[in-house]
Design a protein that fits this description.
The structure holds 2 protein chains of 2 kinds. Chain A is an alpha+beta fold. Chain A folds into 2 domains: 73 residues, no CATH class; 80 residues, Beta Barrel (OB fold (Dihydrolipoamide Acetyltransferase, E2P)), CATH 2.40.50. A 5-stranded antiparallel sheet of chain A has the order 6-5-4-7-8, with no helix packed on it. A 3-stranded antiparallel sheet of chain A has the order 2-1-3. In chain A, helix 1 runs antiparallel to helix 3. The longest helix of chain A is centred in the N-terminal third of the chain and has 18 residues. Chain B has one domain: Ribonuclease Z/Hydroxyacylglutathione hydrolase-like (Metallo-beta-lactamase, Chain A, 4-Layer Sandwich), CATH 3.60.15.10. Chain B is built from 12 helices and 17 strands. In chain B, helix 3 packs parallel to helix 6. Classes of the chains: A alpha+beta, B alpha/beta. At the A-B interface, strand 4, strand 5, strand 6, strand 7 and strand 8 of A face helix 4, helix 6, helix 11 and strand 14 of B.
Chain lengths: 189, 388
């Protein structure tokens, strides 16, 4: 292993403790930017999978070394971090779905007695959530600022639909038994 | 006509009908004389966030636990049921009545299926769960004292005074009809979740086939509370069945709680011709959801052509979202096509009549909060339709 490759390998080892860093991997004709890297090697930090990914990378480097293929790994400057400062949050329930919009009932998360109805264009919903828009679907609407390390501040409206599991037969059977019990428990005139 | 002091209780021989709304939904409170009260539906007061009827009774110095004899839930839509659990818990000697549509096991299954809190929100299931819990508790604690709950169907006597009572009172349900019950059972069944189906909240906004219409006799005075029952083209349902019934109580009502916020769908002219006195005292609440506010101007014109004594708890206009400002308001404007508050202003219409002055006595009308003459409400609401 040449000196440069050894240094880079060390750097990868070090970075396994700093899970927020991002890298560009360059091996022979294979050049991966961070997005491709994570597509190739697994889920992005900061979860524990990152460590496995780093280990996989080291193994990959070892394999490359054994085949005498040069590997260059360059550290990229950290992507500017950003954080969301919430100003307002509603919980919404879809009431009606129209041609290119939906009407929802909104409950202010700081005032459960508030009650509003609003019409949202589908465009306000992330593409990945649009299949979830149906009457009764629950979503959250956040308004706030996104502050970036670069010093930029942006106002943002973020809509995310809840992904609730489907009904299971066990749940429905439990409800059926409970309903029968309830019927037997309460006497009616 | 505007009331000055809402905290003055009715006299023992005075009948009172108070209609509350639309802090959230509507509620009717009736004094039958002799410190006996009944409550029909429940709504939340916007200031106290408690059931409006309960707060009012406490304000009058009335103990709801002793004085409330009957609680009727006309249907399970959440604009008629909010706070019902607290009402039931506070009025532990009151008989509970609900539509016979809710006697089907599927409804109980629905309640149990949606017993997870986040799923119940925004539907009447949440309050009904509380009511069932109270009824279960009563069975173990108050077997001797608490009357059994009862289902309402067409032309059924729900409650009456003991024979020795100085002021005879009877409460009848005039609906739901058999056909309406069948339709309601089907509707409830269709709401039951299916295996593999994505979980979502219940959005029940169908026609109110199974709503309970009440007829109340207090000595010689009759009241007709129209609930949200709508007229229907389906034979055997709606107001036509009630008008044509041969088994309903006789008489003409002096007070009419106009059904379904005065909407055209709930209008049946023969009700006015056959079941109400001329110049009946007509009262209603606004509905501030969906694509239209109720009553519309044509609804008001129709009602006001039939009586000059029509009142509403608040003008049928929605407020734009007012609590936000600055960045929030700007982002809201940029994000939504339209946004409206669904709660208007609180209002109470109070009608009282001294029973000893019958038959010549006149109703004393007091308007509190945002309540007003129906004709005035339309003028007030003009220029405030959702489209603007």
């Amino acid at each position: 292993m040449n000196t440069a490759a050894a240094n880079l390998q060390e750097e990868i080892k070090d970075s396994s403790e700093s899970v927020h860093e991002e890298y560009l991997v360059h091996a022979d004709n294979m050049r991966l930017d961070s997005t491709q890297f994570f597509t190739e090697f697994g889920q992005i930090s900061p979860d524990e999978k990152w460590v496995d990914t780093i280990n996989d990378s080291i193994d990959s480097i070892k394999r490359q070394k054994e085949s005498s293929t040069p590997v260059v790994i360059l550290k990229q400057p950290s992507r500017p971090k950003s954080h969301f400062i919430p100003l307002k949050k509603w919980e919404g329930t879809v009431l009606t779905v129209l041609e290119d919009s939906f009407v929802a009932r909104l409950i202010d998360q700081e005032d459960e007695y508030s009650d509003s109805e609003a019409e949202f264009s589908f465009e306000e919903v992330p593409q990945s959530d649009r299949g979830l828009i149906e009457p009764g679907a629950i979503f959250y609407w956040n308004i706030g600022y996104i502050d970036r390390d670069s010093g930029q501040r942006m106002r943002a409206s973020v809509i995310r639909f809840r992904r609730i599991p489907v009904w299971q037969s066990e749940e429905l059977e439990t409800a059926k038994v409970a309903a029968r019990h309830l019927r037997e428990t309460i006497d009616w005139e | 006509m505007t009331g000055n002091n809402s905290a003055v209780p009715p006299r023992s021989n005075e009948i009172e009908v108070s209609l509350f709304g639309p802090g959230y939904g509507e509620s009717v409170l009736i004094h039958l004389g002799l410190q006996q009260w009944i409550i029909v539906d429940s709504c939340i007061d916007q200031n106290s966030h408690r059931p409006a009827a309960l707060g009012y009774l406490e304000n009058l110095g009335v103990d709801p636990a002793q004085a409330v004899k009957l609680i009727v839930v006309t249907h399970w839509h959440d604009d008629h049921i909010k706070g019902l659990g607290e009402l039931m818990a506070s009025c532990n000697l009151a008989k509970f009545v609900c539509s016979a549509a809710l006697r089907c096991e599927e409804f109980l299954e629905l309640v149990e299926s949606y017993s997870q809190r986040s799923m119940m929100r925004s539907s009447g299931v949440e309050e009904f769960r509380k009511v069932l819990d109270v009824l279960k508790t009563r069975k173990s604690k108050y077997t001797e004292l608490s009357p059994l709950p009862k289902f309402a169907i067409s032309d059924r006597l729900l409650w009456k005074n003991p024979p020795e009572a100085a002021i005879p009172c009877e409460v009848f349900s005039l609906s739901p009809s058999d056909m309406s019950l069948n339709l309601a059972f089907q509707e409830i069944k269709s709401l039951l979740p299916q295996e593999g189906e994505r979980k979502k909240r219940i959005i029940a906004r169908g026609p109110n086939h199974a709503a309970v219409v009440l007829w109340i006799n207090v000595r010689d005075t009759c009241l007709l509370l129209g609930s949200d029952l709508e007229e229907s083209s389906i034979a055997g349902t709606g107001w036509s069945v009630i008008v044509d019934s041969k088994t309903r109580p006789d008489g003409r009502a002096f007070i009419f709680k106009i059904p379904h916020h005065g909407s055209k769908n709930a209008d049946q002219p023969q009700v006015w011709q056959n079941m109400l006195v001329d110049e009946v005292m007509a009262i209603t609440t606004p509905f501030l959801r969906g694509s239209v506010n109720l009553p519309t101007k044509s609804d008001v014109d129709r009602i006001c052509s039939r009586t000059s004594h029509a009142y509403i708890t608040a003008p049928p206009k929605r407020r734009r979202l007012s609590k936000s400002s600055g960045a929030i308001a700007k982002t809201i404007r940029e994000t939504v096509r339209d946004i409206r508050e669904c709660t208007g202003q609180d209002g109470q219409i109070r009608l009282r009549l001294n029973l000893s002055e019958l038959p010549e006595g006149t109703w004393n009308v007091e308007l509190f909060g945002a309540s007003c003459d129906l004709r005035h409400a339309v003028l007030s609401a003009q220029g405030c339709s959702p489209a603007q």
